[in-house]
Design goal:
This protein is of the alpha+beta class. Helix content is about 35%, strand content about 20%. It has a five-stranded antiparallel β-sheet with strand order 3-4-5-7-6. A three-stranded antiparallel β-sheet has the order 8-10-11. It has a two-stranded antiparallel ribbon with strand order 1-2. A hairpin with a 5-residue loop joins β4 and β5. About 5% of the residues have low confidence. The structure holds adenosine-5'-triphosphate.
Length: about 325
């Protein structure tokens, strides 16, 4: 199997040389550089541990994937997608950052941002629903992270409250990029354009010309967009459909499309069959109605959403990530 191993796993070590001078060396981090603590969670192909960098004492979450199990289940492709995607998304506070990767004979290790606050779904289940202020804050953070990943050519394709983790400050960190679609990176494309202008041939041109639609069926039934069900194709707007489902769920306490089976859920989605609970806030209803639109080209864009009245007065960008998370309170209809 192709276990990709490149970059990322670099750290700095200070050593004293034979002449007594301090030298700074770049070294690869390995399993022995971390002390492992309790299990934070288990996935189908992985266990996630709390771990501490022995040198810096900084805490991380380390995801350990067992090679044998991944091979047996034919998931090598997904493991590589997750890693390649995370390596592209390292500059945003709203996305779980991958710091180092390494491997030994049995396992792959991903050293990630620690998210002590758990999953947004768990937090939502404790309060039942979120009030408008909380929904606005968490909605804004999720939207800001979506905008960043789209700007880097990543479609998540499986956004849902389980994949929104929370850090110490109860700020959002989006995770689970195993089913993401990587479009040609716009920044790489720009570099290549500059190179082409200088007469350097472009090896990735065919890929760059590929339609930005991504075939193949992935996701979770309740948040799957109608275009994925009817055309088997996902685009950036598919993530905004999921975003609409999440806004609905935060205020209503349940996702808009939910039925006894996956098949029945899909039926509801393609027929746009959902209802708002009584007392659902007016501005949020308008926002959700403009996101849960069957034709992806007619859905609100990130910019439209930011300017929607539901987000009136809500800072985005740096101010959003510096602000304190609101106290969690359930929505009380008027
Ligand atoms: P599956 O592989 O079945 O889809 P999953 O994607 O949740 O499950 P993992 O990504 O391995 O699998 O995560 C397992 C559990 O560990 C999750 O439920 C999550 O709560 C926890 N977890 C994952 N990443 C972190 C993190 N960075 N910080 C804290 N906890 C985490």
């Amino acid at each position: 199997a192709e276990w990709q191993e490149r970059g990322a796993a670099v750290g700095i070590r200070r050593e004293v040389d034979a002449n007594g001078r301090t030298v700074v060396r770049q070294v690869k981090k390995g399993v022995r550089d971390f002390s492992f603590g309790r299990v934070l969670g288990e996935g189908s192909y992985s266990s996630v541990y709390l771990a501490t960098d022995r040198q810096t004492l900084k805490e991380y979450a380390i995801k350990v994937l067992e090679k044998r199990h991944i091979l047996k289940e034919k998931k090598v492709k997904y493991v590589n997608i997750e890693k390649n995607t995370l390596n592209r998304l390292t500059e945003h506070p709203g996305i779980v950052r991958l710091y180092y990767t390494f491997q030994d004979e049995a396992s792959l290790y991903y050293v990630l941002d620690l998210c002590n606050g758990g999953e947004l779904l768990g937090v939502l289940k404790r309060t039942g629903t979120f009030d408008i202020e909380c929904t606005r804050f968490y909605g804004a953070q999720i939207l800001d992270a979506i905008e960043y990943m789209h700007s880097r050519g990543v479609i998540h394709r499986d956004l849902k409250p389980e994949n929104v983790l929370l850090d110490d400050a109860m700020h959002v960190k989006i995770t689970d990029f195993g089913t993401a679609k990587l479009l040609p990176d716009p920044r790489e494309a720009q570099k290549q354009q500059d190179a082409s202008a200088r007469g350097v041939p472009d090896p990735g041109r065919r890929e760059a010309e590929e339609d930005s639609r991504a075939a193949s069926f992935v996701g979770t039934a309740e948040y799957v967009s109608p275009e994925l069900l009817t055309n088997k194709s996902a685009c950036k707007a598919s993530d905004l459909w999921a975003f609409g489902c999440i806004i609905y769920q935060l205020l209503a306490g349940r996702p808009p499309f939910k039925a006894g089976s996956e098949y029945l859920t899909f039926q509801k989605i393609v027929n746009l069959e959902y209802e708002f609970p009584a007392g659902f806030p007016h501005a949020a209803r308008d926002l959700v109605e403009r996101l849960l639109v069957l034709d992806p080209s007619r859905r609100l864009t990130v910019e439209h959403i930011r300017n929607h009245e539901f987000f009136d007065g809500q800072p985005f960008g740096v101010g959003l990530w510096r602000s304190k998370a609101p106290r969690l309170r359930p929505y009380v209809p008027p």
